[in-house]
Amino acid sequence: MVHFAVRDSGIGIAPEDMSRLFLPFSQLDSALSRHHEGTGLGLALVRRLADLHGGSVTVESEVGVGSCFTITLPYHPVAVPPVAPAPPAPPTPPAPPRAGTAGGRILLAEDNEANVLAISEYLNAKGYEVVLAVNGYEALARADTTRPDLILMDIQMPEMDGLEAILRLRDRPDYQKTPIVALTALAMPGDRERCLAAGATAYMTKPISLRGLMALIEQLLQA
Ligand code: MN
User: Fold this and answer.
1) Distance in angstroms (rounded) separating the CA atoms of residues 198 and 111
2) Cα of 93 from ligand 1 centre, angstroms
3) pTM attached to this predicted model
4) CA–centroid distance, residue 134 to ligand 1 (Å)
5) Given 106, 112, 167, 216, which residue has the most CB atoms within 10 angstroms?
6) Which phi and psi angles does 68 have, rounded to 5°?
7) How far is the CA of 158 from the centre of ligand 1 (A)?
8) Rounded to an integer, what is the distance from CA 15 to the centroid of its chain?
9) How much distance in Å is there from the Cα of 57 to the middle of ligand 1?
């Protein structure tokens, strides 16, 4: 058996309350003004789950001092088969030149740092140069100074959102044909239409599949 013990320094549980402890929707202090939140489901769930695994839950407690809950679960050691050594990798043929996309410059307008990191590292690894902007104003400014081959435009951004930035880009003669991919976490009915109506060439919903994004970028750049 494996024992997991969780100890707290909470209000403690009186012996007469122990029987109600694991009942669903039961709170020892059930007054509306009680200080301790919760649905009273946690311990009931823990007990049910432990039971289903053939285990158990026990509690030791002292009022005003705290409680210690112990979950006991059966442990069955599993013999892990040794991992076979991987066969030697076949020699990789030289990558074919990617006509039309090599050295492409992509403007990524996105305010979420984690997305910026994931997308820009991926694009860098694929051989693209990435220019960053964190809102619509920056996207317009960076576009003018760097002349990107393609623009990835997040829709929800501070200061100026992506829809507005797309509209303003399409207003300029230099950006009539630049592919713009709208990226949105909204995915509400009508989103796609709104993005395309603003002038986006294509539309992707988050979470973005990097591989899918890559395929779309290559398709747009080759078109
Ligand atoms: Mn955003």
Assistant:
1) 20
2) 40
3) 0.56
4) 9
5) 106
6) -130, 115
7) 8
8) 45
9) 45
| Look-up of token digits 């492409």 | 104
CA of 133 to the centre of ligand 1 (A): 11
Question: pLDDT tens-digit profile of 144-200?
Answer: 999 999 999 999 888 899 999 999 999 999 999 999 999 987 667 788 888 999 999
Rounded to the nearest angstrom, the distance between the alpha carbon of 151 and the centre of ligand 1 is: 15
Tokens 């200080």 belong to which residue? 35
- Kindly report the three-state secondary structure assignment for every residue of 164-206: HHHHHHHHCHHHCCCCEEEEECCCCCCHHHHHHHHCCCEEEEC
pLDDT per position as a tens digit, 40-87? 778 888 889 999 999 999 999 999 999 999 999 998 887 777 777 777
C-beta neighbour count of 174 within 10 angstroms: 10
Q: How far is ligand 1, taken at its centre, from the CA of residue 84, in Å?
A: 45
